[in-house]
Amino acid sequence: MKILYISGYAPWWGEYPPDVLEREDAGSVAGGEAGMLESAFGLARRGHEVTVYACAIPGRHGGVTFRKERDFYRDLLEVDPPGAVVAWVDPHPLAAVPPPTVRVMVQQLNDLSFISGWERFADVLVSPSHNHLDFMRRIGWGGAGGVMHNGCWPDLWSTAPPPGARPPRVGYWSSPDRGLHHILRVWPRIRRAVPGATLRVNYEVKKLLGFIEEPPGACDTGLERVRAVRDAVARARGDGSVSFSGLLSRPALRREQIQTRVMAYPSDGLGYTEGFSVAVLEACAAGALPVVRPVDAMPSIYGAAVRWLPLDTGDPGFDDALEENVVKGLVEWAAAPAAPTLEALRSKAEEYSWERAVGEMERVVLETTRKESDDTYVWGGAHAG
Asked: Which pick of 48, 74, 209, 348 has the fewest CB atoms within 10 Å?
């Protein structure tokens, strides 16, 4: 099948080459963009003709052709129409796609804040988890739904040493507005409890703080959160045990992850935020114990494989619980036995491979194609993916 991908991600990370997931020297992308690229490459491996229109340098890699977003509308006028168009996080390009082409909307930004009426241009909405799809239904999506989980390639972390052979390092590699200020606030206490511990923040911080006056989608609550992160980062800059790397290439981030004992993620989004969390899955693959709040889709995905923070961030005992769980992770994770086990973490990573995700995406596209061409086909609903 001929499949076109059109990316709705703004060029937040800058222009990247088609092989960005493998390169050390060409920037990086976050989990949502990685999912777009991995699924495109996977569909090409399965024999589909895939073109991606994105913030990428035009070229060809992994059997996929990359073109600029601006070329998408012109290419739609070709004599040979695509079998499917997959729009990532922005449904509006689907309005230009005439039937019988199947129109797939992949949503990973956890809201439906688009121009009213876009729903009639999408044949199916694809979420990164069943929990996320249920959320999207609650806030207004009433059409067909499928699931393509996010994933990882577990073997890429196969060189990870046992936790006890790693330095007492804590890592944070998710968006800084989702809880970084909490770990920075509690860090001096953790440091006193575990002398020699270090905290590495492996994500872009400066760009977020650059929007302090009016961040994307600014509202009073959003501005308050960004300012809280800004103030916490400013205080931490004088602490030699805390470092900020910025967004790393995917290979460089893996090297950081396999030298980390605890991935501290006191997840605290401004609303429903994590429909999957690739950051937590990568911690599992690396054997870095995730210390996470049980919010959004994460409990339904990670279950007993991670260490859950039991309290809400506004609870008076939250800081004590965060300190206790990170310290326990640093100390206990360096010695056997530890719970959850390294085997449980690795097993969770293997459960959600990118190959599984590709199969789920292909299934959604093909089943939606059959539904559109056969009135007797009954769509399987939220669990068809």
From this structure: 74
Q: In what order do the strands lie in the sheet with 145-147?
A: 59-61, 64-68, 49-54, 2-7, 84-88, 102-106, 124-127, 145-147
Residue among 254, 243, 296 nearest 279 (CA): 254
Cα gap 184→199, rounded to integer Å: 9
**Mean pLDDT, contiguous 10-residue spans, the chain (385 residues):** 91 85 90 93 98 95 96 87 94 92 90 74 96 92 95 96 94 94 97 97 81 49 84 92 94 97 95 94 97 97 94 95 96 76 94 97 95 49 35
Q: Which two tokens stand for residue 113?
A: 């804040």
Determine the length of the chain.
Answer: 385
CA–CA separation, 309 and 318 (whole Å): 8
Cβ atoms of 196 and 367 within 8 Å: the answer is no
For residues 229-257, one letter each, b for 16 or more C-beta atoms within 10 angstroms of the residue's C-beta and e for the rest, the string is bbebbeebeeeebbebeebbbbeebbebb
Using CA atoms, how far apart are residues 108 and 374, in angstroms rounded to an integer? 29
Q: Is 308 exposed, middle or buried (0-12, 13-18, 19+ CB in 10 A)?
A: middle
Q: Which residue, among 238, 234, 240, 245, has the nearest Cα to 201 in the 3D structure?
A: 245
Q: Per residue, what are the HEC states of 158-219?
A: CCCCCHHHCCCEEEECCCHHHCHHHHHHHHHHHHHHCCCCEEEECCCCHHHHCCCCCCCCCC
75 vs 63: CA distance, rounded Å:
18
Alpha helices in the chain (DSSP H): 31-45, 71-75, 130-138, 180-193, 206-209, 220-236, 250-257, 278-286, 298-302, 318-332, 342-351, 354-373
287 contacts 157 by C-beta, under 8 angstroms: yes
Classified as helix, coil or strand, 144 is: coil
Per-state percent for the chain, helix, strand, coil, to nearest 5:
40, 15, 45
Do 3 and 86 touch, CB atoms closer than 8 A? yes
Instruction: Look at the pTM and tell me if it is higher than 0.85.
Output: yes
Using only C-alpha atoms, the chain has a radius of gyration, in whole angstroms, of 21
Number of neighbours of residue 73 by Cβ within 10 angstroms: 13
Quote the CA–CA distance of 64 and 81 in Å, as a whole number. Answer: 17
